[in-house]
Amino acid sequence: MDDEVAALVIDNGSGMCKAGFAGDDAPRAVFPSIVGRPRHQSLDQLEIADKSPSNYTLDLLER
User: Fold this and answer.
1) What is the dihedral of CA 42, 43, 48, 51, to 10 degrees?
2) Which of 6, 7, 8, 45 has the most Cβ atoms closer than 10 angstroms to its Cβ?
3) What pTM was computed for the model?
Protein backbone atom coordinates (compact mmCIF):
# COMPACT_ATOMS: atom_id res chain seq x y z
CA MET A 1 0.00 0.00 0.00
CA ASP A 2 1.34 3.44 -0.94
CA ASP A 3 1.50 5.69 2.13
CA GLU A 4 2.47 8.83 0.20
CA VAL A 5 -0.12 11.58 0.00
CA ALA A 6 0.09 14.00 -2.93
CA ALA A 7 -0.60 17.66 -2.24
CA LEU A 8 -3.61 19.17 -3.98
CA VAL A 9 -2.79 22.32 -5.98
CA ILE A 10 -5.53 24.84 -6.87
CA ASP A 11 -4.86 27.89 -9.06
CA ASN A 12 -7.89 30.19 -8.87
CA GLY A 13 -6.90 32.56 -11.67
CA SER A 14 -8.84 35.53 -12.97
CA GLY A 15 -10.06 33.70 -16.08
CA MET A 16 -9.61 29.97 -15.49
CA CYS A 17 -9.43 27.78 -12.38
CA LYS A 18 -7.02 24.82 -12.51
CA ALA A 19 -6.72 21.94 -10.05
CA GLY A 20 -4.47 18.92 -9.84
CA PHE A 21 -1.86 17.13 -7.76
CA ALA A 22 1.67 18.32 -7.04
CA GLY A 23 4.15 16.58 -9.32
CA ASP A 24 1.70 15.99 -12.19
CA ASP A 25 2.66 17.39 -15.60
CA ALA A 26 -0.69 19.13 -16.13
CA PRO A 27 -3.81 20.04 -14.12
CA ARG A 28 -6.50 17.36 -13.93
CA ALA A 29 -9.34 19.89 -14.06
CA VAL A 30 -9.55 23.24 -15.88
CA PHE A 31 -12.74 25.30 -15.85
CA PRO A 32 -13.81 28.97 -16.09
CA SER A 33 -13.55 31.04 -12.91
CA ILE A 34 -16.76 32.53 -11.54
CA VAL A 35 -15.09 34.78 -8.97
CA GLY A 36 -14.72 38.47 -9.77
CA ARG A 37 -16.50 40.77 -12.17
CA PRO A 38 -16.84 40.85 -15.96
CA ARG A 39 -13.84 42.36 -17.76
CA HIS A 40 -15.76 45.10 -19.54
CA GLN A 41 -17.75 46.28 -16.53
CA SER A 42 -16.69 49.61 -15.09
CA LEU A 43 -16.80 50.46 -11.41
CA ASP A 44 -19.48 53.12 -11.98
CA GLN A 45 -21.88 50.25 -12.86
CA LEU A 46 -21.62 48.83 -9.32
CA GLU A 47 -23.66 49.92 -6.33
CA ILE A 48 -23.34 48.98 -2.67
CA ALA A 49 -26.70 47.42 -1.76
CA ASP A 50 -26.43 47.90 1.99
CA LYS A 51 -24.41 50.97 2.98
CA SER A 52 -23.56 49.64 6.46
CA PRO A 53 -19.84 48.90 6.92
CA SER A 54 -20.55 45.29 7.92
CA ASN A 55 -22.17 44.43 4.57
CA TYR A 56 -20.47 45.16 1.26
CA THR A 57 -22.77 43.32 -1.14
CA LEU A 58 -22.48 44.71 -4.66
CA ASP A 59 -25.43 44.76 -7.04
CA LEU A 60 -25.26 45.55 -10.75
CA LEU A 61 -27.19 48.56 -11.91
CA GLU A 62 -29.69 47.94 -14.69
CA ARG A 63 -28.62 49.96 -17.77
Assistant:
1) -160
2) 45
3) 0.49
